[in-house]
Amino acid sequence: MPVEQIPHQQTGSLVAGNRLLAPEQRSGQARPDRANSLTCGHRACRGCGEALGARWVVDAALRATGNRLIAVNATGCLEVFSTPYPQSAWQLPWLHSLFGNAPAVATGVAAALRATGRADVRVLGQGGDGGTVDIGFGCLSGMFERNDDVLYVCYDNEAYMNTGVQRSGATPAAARTATTQAVGTEPGNVFGQGKNLPAIAMAHEIPYVATATVADLRDLEAKVTRAMDVQGARYLHVLVPCPLGWGSEAHDTIRLARLATQCGLFPVLEAAYGEVTAATRIRRRVPVEGTCAGSPGTPTCSGHASGPTWSPVSRRRPIGTSPGTACWPHRHPRRWPDGDPVRHHARLGVEPDQSDRRLARRATRLPRPVSALCRRVPRRRERP
Amino acid sequence: MLRQIEGSQAVAAAVAACRPQVICAYPISPQTHIVEALSATVKSGALASCEFINVESEFAAMSVAIGASAAGARAYTATASQGLLYMAEAVYNAAGLGLPIVMTIANRAIGAPINIWNDHSDSMVMRDAGWVQLYAEDNQEAADLHVQAFALAERLSVPVMVCMDGFVLTHAFERVDVPEQDAVDAFLPPYRPRQRLDPADPVTIGAMVGPEAFTEVRYLAHVNQLRALDAVPAIAAGFAAAFGRSTGGLVRPYRVDDADTVVVALGSVLGTLKDAVDELRDGGLRVGVLGVTTYRPFPSAAVRAALGGARRIVVLERAFSAGTGGIVTADVRGALPGAGAGTVTVVAGLGGRPITRASLRQVLADAHGGRLEPLTFLDLDLRLVERELARTPTG
Amino acid sequence: MRLAQNGDYEAAWREIMRINPLPAIMGRVCYRPCETACNRGQLDETVGINSVERFLGDEAVRAGWTVSAGPSTGRRVLVVGAGPAGLAAAYHLRLLGHDVTMRDAGPEPGGMMRFGIPAYRLPRDVLDAEIRRIVDLGVTLELNTRVDDVAAVRETDGFEAVFLAVGAQLSHRTYVPAGDSARLLDALSVLRHTAGGAPPLLGRRVAVYGGGNTAVDVARTARRLGAADAVIVYRRTRDRMPAHESEVAEAEEEGVRMCWLSTIARAGEGRITVERMRLDESGFPQPTGEFDELDADAVVLALGQDSDLGLVSQAPSVATAHGRIVVDSAFMTGLPGVFAGGDAISGDRTVTSAVGHGRRAAQAIDAWLRGRATAEEALVREAGYDLLNPWYYTEAPRQHRARLEAARRTSTFDEVVAGLDPATALFEARRCLSCGGCFECDNCYSVCPDDAVIKLGPGLRYEIDLEYCKGCGLCAAECPAGAITMIPEQRQPT
Q1: Which CATH architecture has domain B251-382?
Q2: FRET partner for B145 with CA separation of 20 to 30 A, picked from A158, B237, B307, B380?
Q3: Within an 8 Å CB–CB cutoff, is residue A281 touching chain C?
Q4: Is residue A310 part of a domain?
Q5: Interface test with B, best of A65, A101, A152 (most B CBs within 10 A)
Q6: What's the pLDDT at B383?
Q7: Domain tally for chain A?
Q8: Which of A20, A30, A42 sits opposite C445 (nearest CB)?
Q9: Buried b (16+ CB within 10 A) or exposed e, C243-255
């Protein structure tokens, strides 16, 4: 656990500040002299999770580095709403180049800092889920593989929001987006696709990988702080609900992220060198169904009652079920309790449908699960 | 110091003498020998304070260079062909950000069909990217142009491409006077960026510009680029004074003063052309050659001045625009009064096809005699063409 | 609570003292209606407001914290009765600067708190200390002084206003057919004599007739006086019993037996006959004609109390109804300048409401003396549970006060329920959700995506910068206490 939970004291460490705690026990965001690196006046939508998450992340990174920090931004909402020429909301040196190259640009900045004798200045790369898991994925993987001294933060709102809510490689199954519309009885996004980027990052055996959400901002802050203590490539995947794209209320941004963690859809974890080292326990378990209404992660499967059990490692991937708790996530073809969806639904007395049959066919020819990568024995790497 | 040296090695040595701080590269033939040599130089410690980054793509290579340059480092990369196209988005981006990156293009054809040999199809694609493009005639010039390129890039805050013909130059062993470190140090001051990413003075680089200012941003980039037309000759002159040899500059006229027919060309073909011109002159034909060293920005005034006396102009192109014709031809015509009537295009040496002195003599003689079509493909194998046409159903 | 959470107990005590002059007493005898309303009950268990109050009251007694009277107005007020209502009124009137004379017919001040509530619930040193603190404010206390005619006394002794807090000291009588040798007592006299150090002889087996708190007090007192068997005879069922649940439970722990659905039909020597009852549809007990016999050396009647209203019998304008004085919403009787409160007026006859009457009557008297309307108390803005964000409160099980072991409870009058120690009191105070009240957790400041919440500093809370606020409502949604309200912006006329 990156954040030592302080029990009792009314709200303990669950709130940002808490006057009952010593100042050093409160979050950095509670400080009146916080950096406000992404300052007021930016043009994000109401209730923007990315704007919120980004300020926490960059402020925390600034504090951890004593303001010796340079940010590199991928194209996307965060870049667009923060820098309408001739204004900028950024209070730190900040560079935007392209949609798909932020990790490589960050590498270049880090290399320049080393070459020019300013290695104490650290580099933060950041982008949305499209810029990270899709178009920027090659550059990200290269940055990981070289173990460049960059903390890369993905603000995951589960679709291409800046262009108008199109599907990305991070869009969960069944989600409605502008390019995966729910038509008839067919759900939105197809099942069984999408990247588990934290697991992929871990497979690179980089020194630090973590997930976080805007629902637990102190955890996010602590993870950024911890990441800045580490040299080399680091990856932080932050779930940031998007009211515009998810069709949710602006004031529900944090609540939806919280529900995503409490129903197990979004595991919150830390990993070092490819091994999970900590996971945030679910505090108040809620069922998946009915918790994420309106979000790209809105899948429901009629006929099933309660949610599945979830792997703490594998995002959005159930690894096992108890009998009778099958639900939409099990439409992931790699994970059917009875081998394939037709057999599984038949056992539950649910009439298999067309998509079940299609998935059953696919289930027979799928490669090994992505999460298996996480269990690979890490190759020995020089640890700083 | 004169050395018998491979072109790539000479360029690598010249680049190293410029003390780049970040070198990033992704291998592609025929650029490989340059970055291999630089990699070894950095690893050996001979190049102090330099980071060599092996990246996963050309797109990443240019991106790393962008980051490095924005953070205040002298950045260099090299590529060719498909690689240049793969990094295209970042190439434009570097120019838009005004980052003084220097990049070597080991000119090579573009597929499909895949072909690793030399022509200018790759760098011609990038002629509108906002970079200064310099074309080397030989390896001496290739080496020297890199020193001048860094000086130019950093003086104007624009990126510069140094184009040298793949294999023909990169893999050719010639006698090259590799620029000495002391002389380069004296010629090229340390990089002082106009602005850089610095926590002590935070700046936002790469903001979003809307319709209200985009035209102005582009206009300013154009004006800045035109300043190269003054800066290039000045730097070449300075280089000549410091190193005792004349390389670079905007254009290189050869026997054009009384020429009726002048051939305009870029790159290594100029050497063969000069030999052919000499032979034709010996035969009494008044022909000349105009080498264009600085292709972007296009030195229209210098070209017009050099071609003023010629009746017939042949533009020898190492690339072409399918369905249209010559690329450089359009620039040359634009520089001439009356839109350069009488200017013809000869497309030659695509995908590494040798350009022989005999063929050149023939085409120049035909041109001089007014017997040349507006667009000629040198040494076109008509039998192959007709055989393929016969196999292709028409209609 | 807020001040107690900070560990500033004296400030917290002073905050309580603005309302309630008897926190150590109330922390013991109050039946905690506030805790019923506590939102934390929907999360886990209600906050022990009462136990924190007691802790603060005890701290004050221990540390000798005092308050001071207000600047003198020279107006004279007579308070009749030194029970909780009278004491509270006297206290608040002194804070307002009036001269207060308090007369009580009894030998010691405290009223029912002294003579009705057994020492095991309210130790006398605590009672004495809190009364002394009020008297030390400059109250003229005249004991053993009965006021027989309020109008006359007011006239002769020159009081501008009078507050009647005479309580309800007379035991309600009912007819129980009894043999000559049967020993019948009334509950109040048992408690009064026990408090006075001369407990009556009750015998080994005691039956208490009634279902109120007094009945339970008597039964528990009987156990402490040596009764091997104390049984409460009540005609309805436990859930309909007016006595407070906690008292009944404690009584049962101490071995008090309950005889539900029963009336005493007849009392004889060492034995009583009870008739079984059943509840009709309206919940009223009806006789069944079936009888049981119980051993009982004494029968104590605890069937309610009446007020001795003789002092207003000479004042026809003071109306009474059902044995209680009728007052208006400002606690004034039909006779201008004469106010009444506590058990003597209608209400639920607890120390809690008596103290409340005292305070509100004091304010009314003050307003009457100054010739202005009683100021309406500003309602505290409260937030219902649905406005809270319970996620942010830590898991914190309620800290219960230690209780004396049952064996010692039946032999001594030692206090049954112990107080909280400082650590647990602090813990309990910090279980408070501060519903509707900002406690400066910095959540609003931290969750605003637009940096539009300005932190003003410790104790100063926050300000919304409306120039930059987009109205997303995250601050309100993520405020643990529901202390932020979203108000729709009025469209500016164009």
Answers
A1: 3-Layer(aba) Sandwich (3.40)
A2: B307
A3: no
A4: no
A5: A101
A6: 96
A7: 1
A8: A30
A9: bbeebbebbbbbb
> In this predicted structure, what is the pLDDT of residue B231?
98
**B218 close contact with A: CB closer than 8 A:** no
User: What is the widest separation between alpha-carbon atoms in chain C?
Assistant: 94
pLDDT at A364: 45
C25 touches chain A (CB under 8 A): no
Q: Inter-chain contact A18–C468, Cβ cutoff 8 Å?
A: no
CA C456, distance to chain mean position in Å, is 39
Range of the domain at A245: 34-302
Distance CA A255, CA C472 (A): 13
Model confidence pLDDT, tens digit, residues B159-176: 999 999 999 999 999 999
Q: Where in chain B is the domain with CATH 3.40.50.920?
A: 251-382
Please indicate if any CB of chain A lies within 8 Å of the CB of B97: yes
Domains, chain C: 2-65+379-429 (no CATH), 76-169+307-369 (3.50.50.60), 171-305 (3.50.50.60), 438-494 (3.30.70.20)
Work out the average pLDDT over B42-57: 95
**Chain B residues with CB-CB distance to A145 below 8 A:** 56
Interval A4-21 mean pLDDT: 80
Residue of A nearest to B65 (CA): A108
Say yes or no: C433 contacts chain A, CB-CB below 8 A.
yes
Whether residue C342 lies within 8 A of chain A, CB to CB, comes out as no
pLDDT recorded at residue C412 = 81
Is position A15 within any domain?
no
Comparing alpha-carbon positions, the chain A residue that sits nearest to B205 is A95
CB atoms near residue A23 (< 10 Å): 10
> Which residues of chain C carry a pLDDT beneath 50?
none
- Whether A217 sits inside 8 A of C447 (CB atoms) is yes
Site from B208, B215, B218 to mutate, A interface, most A CB atoms within 10 angstroms:
B208
Give chains near B: 3+ CB pairs under 8 A. Answer: A
* Backbone phi, psi, residue C348, to 5°: -95, 10
Q: Which of C392, C474, C476 sits opposite A11 (nearest CB)?
A: C392
Class of domain B2-242: alpha beta
Predicted confidence (pLDDT) per residue in C40-62, tens digit? 888 888 888 888 888 998 988 88
Q: What is the mean pLDDT of chain B?
A: 95
Cβ–Cβ below 8 Å for A111 and B209: no
d(CA A170, CA A134): 8
Q: Residue A64 CA to chain centroid, in angstroms?
A: 21
For residue C98, which phi and psi values (nearest 5 degrees)? -85, 155
Instruction: Kindly tell me if the per-residue pLDDT of A304 is higher than 70.
Output: no
The answer to whether residue B16 neighbours chain A at the CB level (below 8 Å) is no
Contact between A112 and B89 using a beta-carbon 8 Å cutoff: no
Residue A8 domain flag: no
CATH number at residue A107: 3.40.50.970
Peptide bond into A23 cis (omega under 30): no
- On whether residue A221 sits in a domain, the answer given is yes
Chain C residues whose CB is inside 8 A of the A242 CB are: none
C-alpha distance from residue B184 to each of B10, B146, B242, C302, C310 (Å): 14, 11, 9, 112, 118
